[in-house]
Design brief:
Layout: H1 3-26, H2 29-35, E1 44-48, H3 56-64, E2 73-77, H4 81-89, E3 95-99, H5 100-108, E4 113-118, E5 121-122, E6 124-129, E7 144-147, H6 153-164, E8 173-176, H7 182-188, E9 193-197, H8 200-207, E10 210-215, E11 226-231, H9 232-237, H10 239-256, H11 260-275, H12 279-287, E12 293-294, H13 302-314, E13 330-331, E14 342-343, H14 349-353, H15 364-371
Parallel strand pairs: 1-2, 1-3, 7-8, 7-9, 13-14
Antiparallel strand pairs: 3-11, 4-11, 5-12, 6-9, 6-10
Helix pairs in contact: 3-10, 7-8, 8-12, 11-12
């Protein structure tokens, strides 16, 4: 065999080995196989972006990997909300975590989705450069602030504060930017501030170049950002699959409220295996202080969405007053939390969540403990209704 042929053969073998390693290490064959199953057999594709408001999605998925039933849905990470919206409309995603105003706008446009749960409460902030000239909100006049979408609660909170200080929208240059891009833009001086959900305010703080000007809850009590929506045709055709999804998300939220050890654990595996973020950033966002983000109460309430709708009309992103019908809720029979309409039957969710936190499930007893998070009664049914 001549020299050139040996070289060509060696290069070909090297490419074959690299391709094989790539397929083993980086390709999720289970996800690909799921897309080829019959629609009624597929696991639901659930879209999320790497923010704390969507944290219950990867927490539920991770824990369910160790449950008896296995994975209950397929999580798909995106970098921005516009891409999620298009995938939801095209039925590439059957469920998604999106900002609440976007969900209301889609309903107004006739898109068949229902809001079934919230992502979390609080957890958004306006951040400015630490060494910059902005010391108070009026100092932002004439400057650039980034928001995740014109259909976002982070944009609405900026308008609320503008009104409080007697300022006009024209006093700011508001730009849309994908959440993962805002911290780099702030550090580089491309923007003067951003209004965004965690963990990006925490990332700017820990990076030493950002400072929280104010948290959203200071101007908006019971502030919420993202919601979990599901396509109406999926709710109609696969109610038990939707029930299982929502039960898992709800129980994961309650688990996150059990204390700092659980949040530390979630920051570790979500940061490493899902968000591709330094776990210390998530840990900071989830624990400094613990009520920086809250995962209860998260049953959708009509008054929350009426407020968002009215603010959307006031700020020019909704042209008429609509009723956000079809908002659904669960019966999370926990102290003080009202009965709901997506019934959790059998043992209480507190019983399902009982158990000591562990760094990562590994042994059989640990996997059994983790499995408690996502076991749900398959006979649960979806009923309509509002929480007033």
């Amino acid at each position: 065999m001549t020299g050139p042929k040996r070289i060509a053969l060696g290069v070909g073998a090297w490419l074959l080995v690299v391709s094989a390693l790539h397929s083993v290490l980086n390709v999720n064959w289970a996800v690909l196989a799921n897309d080829f199953l019959a629609p009624d057999k597929r696991k639901l594709n659930v879209a999320y972006i790497p923010v704390t408001c969507h944290l219950a999605c990867p927490v539920t998925d991770y824990i369910s990997k160790f449950s008896e039933a296995g994975e209950v849905f397929v999580p798909r990470m995106f970098q921005g909300f516009p891409e999620i919206k298009e995938s939801l409309i095209a039925n590439k995603m059957q469920a998604a975590f999106i900002v609440a105003p976007m969900a209301i706008a889609l309903k107004a446009q006739g898109v068949g989705i229902r809001i079934v749960y919230l992502g979390h409460r609080y957890g958004s902030a306006v951040v400015v450069r630490k060494d910059g000239p902005v010391k108070s909100f009026p100092d932002l006049k004439g400057r650039t602030i980034a928001v995740p979408s014109r259909y976002s609660d982070e944009r609405l909170i900026v308008f609320r504060v503008l009104k409080k200080y007697g300022m006009k929208p024209e006093d700011l240059r508001i730009v849309e930017m994908a959440p993962p891009d805002v911290t780099g833009a702030l550090a580089a001086g491309a923007i003067d501030a951003f209004s965004m959900g965690e963990p990006f305010p925490s990332q700017a703080e820990l990076g030493g170049y950002g400072r929280v000007l104010f948290h959203a809850r200071e101007y908006w009590p019971d502030y919420m950002s993202c919601v979990l929506v599901v396509r109406e045709d999926v709710i109609a055709s696969r109610p038990e699959a939707v029930q299982t999804l929502v039960d898992g998300i709800a129980r994961s939220g309650l688990w996150l409220e059990e204390g700092k050890p659980h949040r530390d654990q979630a920051a570790d595996f979500v940061g490493r295996f899902y968000y591709n973020q330094d776990p210390k950033i998530l840990r900071w966002a989830l624990t400094n202080p613990l009520d920086r983000v809250m995962y209860t109460p998260l049953s959708p309430r009509k008054r929350d969405f009426d407020l968002v709708r009215d603010l959307m009309i006031e700020t020019g992103v909704l042209d008429r007053k609509i009723e956000v019908r079809g908002v659904r809720r669960h019966a999370l029979r926990r102290r003080g939390q009202g009965a709901g309409r997506l019934a959790l039957r059998g043992r209480s969710e507190r019983g399902a969540l009982r158990g000591r936190p562990r760094p990562l499930p590994s042994s059989k007893p640990e996997r059994e403990s983790a499995a408690r998070l996502t076991r749900s009664n398959r006979k649960a049914t979806i009923l309509s209704g509002h929480e007033r």
